[in-house]
UniProtKB/TrEMBL annotation:
CDD domains: crotonase-like. PANTHER family: EG:BACN32G11.4 PROTEIN, ENOYL-COA HYDRATASE. One of its GO terms (molecular function) is catalytic activity. This is Enoyl-CoA hydratase. Pfam families: ECH_1 (PF00378). Belongs to the enoyl-CoA hydratase/isomerase family. PROSITE patterns: ENOYL_COA_HYDRATASE.
C-alpha cells in the first residue's frame, strides 16, 4: 500500500507490518511527505491486528535526517525562525513522540546511513537491527544547528550522557561495530544474511502474545521515569488485565503440554 509518494506499507500473514521510507533520491530525508506518510502508516496499524512493525528505508539508506533542500529554501526565502520551529514541531517532533509511545513493538531496520533526525527515528523504535553497512551520526553541527528530533531525550538513555555529548559535539559518524559497542543497536548482521536474520527476529516478536507484549513494551519504556513502587503497581495492573486473556490460558496449556503456543491476540 502506497501512502502518498514517499512511504509504503505492507502487512504479511504473520501480522508483521513493514513501513518503507521510499524517497531514495533524497536518501529518505525527513521531508513533510515522509513524515505525513509515516504518520498515516502508523494510523493504519495502531488499531489493527498487526503484532510487530519493521521500519526501513529504500535505496541503501535508512534516513539522512533533516531535509537539506527545505533548509535551503527556508534560508533563501527568509522564512521566520518561529515559523520554521512550528513546522518542525508539527512534523518531526510529533512523529518521534508517536513512535516512542507506539503500542505495537517497532524495529528499525538500518541498512546504510541513519544520521541526524534519521538516527533519532531509529532510536525512537523499540529495537534496532543493523547491517554491516549501517552508519550512525548525530551530525546537526555539520549544518550549523543544535540538536532536535528528540536527541537530548533518546541518545543519553541509550549510550549515557558522556557518550551522547561526544557524539553530538563532534558529529562523528560511527560504523555498525562501534554502534553495537555503544548500544545504539541490538544486533549487527552480516550483509549476506541480513534480510533473513531480520525476518527471523521480527517473526519471533510477532509469534508472542500480542496483548501481553504490548503491555510489557509500554511498561519497560516507562520504567526509567517511575519509582519502584509505581512500577510494581503498574505491572500488577497490567498483569491483572492479561490474566483474563485467552492467550494466557493458551500459554499455560502449551507449557504444561510441552508444545509451542499459538497466540491469537485475544
Amino acid at each position: 500500500m502506497a501512502l502518498g509518494d514517499a512511504v509504503r506499507l505492507d502487512v504479511d500473514d504473520e501480522g508483521i507490518a513493514t513501513i518503507t521510507l521510499d524517497r531514495p533520491d533524497r536518501r529518505n530525508a525527513l521531508s513533510p511527505a515522509i513524515s505525513d506518510g509515516l504518520s498515516a502508516a502508523l494510523d493504519e496499524i495502531e488499531d489493527s491486528d498487526v503484532r510487530c512493525v519493521r521500519l526501513e528505508g529504500a535505496g541503501g539508506a535508512f534516513s539522512a535526517g533533516g531535509d537539506i533542500e527545505s533548509m535551503r529554501e527556508g534560508i533563501e526565502n527568509d522564512i521566520p525562525a518561529d515559523e520554521r520551529v512550528r513546522s518542525l514541531e508539527r512534523s518531526t517532533n510529533e512523529l518521534i513522540r508517536r513512535l516512542v509511545e507506539f503500542p505495537v513493538p517497532t524495529i528499525a531496520v538500518v541498512d546504510g546511513p541513519a544520521v541526524g533526525a534519521g538516527a533519532n527515528l531509529a532510536l525512537a523504535c523499540d529495537m534496532q537491527l543493523a547491517s554491516e553497512d549501517a552508519v550512525f551520526g548525530f551530525v546537526f553541527r555539520q549544518v550549523g544547528l543544535s540538536v532536535d528530533a528528540g536527541t537530548s531525550y533518546l541518545l543519553p538513555r541509550v549510550v549515557g550522557e558522556n557518550v551522547a555529548k561526544e557524539l553530538v559535539l563532534t558529529g562523528d559518524i560511527v560504523d555498525a561495530d562501534r554502534a553495537d559497542e555503544l548500544g545504539l543497536v541490538n544486533h549487527v548482521y552480516d550483509g549476506d544474511e541480513f534480510d533473513e536474520r531480520v525476518a527471523e527476529f521480527a517473526e519471533k516478536i510477532a509469534s508472542g502474545p500480542p496483548i501481553a507484549l504490548r503491555h510489557a513494551n509500554r511498561l519497560v519504556g516507562e520504567g526509567l521515569a517511575k519509582s519502584l513502587d509505581q512500577a510494581l503497581t503498574d505491572e500488577a495492573v497490567a498483569q491483572g488485565i492479561v490474566f483474563e486473556t485467552a492467550d494466557h490460558e493458551e500459554g499455560v496449556a502449551a507449557f504444561l503440554e510441552d508444545r509451542k503456543p499459538e497466540y491469537e491476540g485475544r
